[in-house]
């Protein structure tokens, strides 16, 4: 009887931890909350910071690394989501993310060209406008 109760207690504890998760702040291990709108805005702000940073900034490698992590986490979380994939903000965001990720992987030590910066800023504005339309 004691053995059965011990196993039942262990199983219940594992089930509770598995269903509720271990994070207490609502953020996943990837730094995203799971709320598409909030996550998109956070990634846009991170990418804007990375784009606007001068080429001789001392913290450029850390900012680029954080931007790449955010790109990977955002894409991994929302690419397979049917709800997010049907949104115009997601399609535009993926275009911007793919352009920046392509630059980072092809030219890791070169600054972002002005033409790409302008295109990304335009796409970020379109994403923000689409998010406002979609939330209304």
TrEMBL record:
Tagged with keyword Membrane: yes
Subcellular location: Cellular thylakoid membrane
Record InterPro entries: PSII_Psb27, PSII_Psb27_cyano_bac, PSII_Psb27_sf
Keyword Ribonucleoprotein (UniProt): no
Annotated Pfam families: PSII_Pbs27
Any Gene Ontology biological process: photosystem II repair
GO-annotated cellular components: photosystem II; plasma membrane-derived thylakoid membrane; thylakoid lumen
UniProt-listed PROSITE patterns: PROKAR_LIPOPROTEIN
Domain of life of the source: Bacteria
Membrane topology term: Lipid-anchor
This protein's UniProt keywords: Lipoprotein, Membrane, Palmitate, Signal, Thylakoid
Functional summary from the UniProt entry: Plays a role in the repair and/or biogenesis of the calcium-manganese-oxide cluster on the lumenal face of the thylakoid membrane. Its presence in a photosystem II (PSII) preparation prevents binding of some small extrinsic subunits and thus assembly of calcium-manganese-oxide cluster.
Family under the similarity heading: Belongs to the Psb27 family.
Subunit structure: Monomer. Forms a complex with a monomeric, partially assembled PSII. This is probably the complex in which D1 is assembled and/or replaced.
Protein name: Photosystem II lipoprotein Psb27
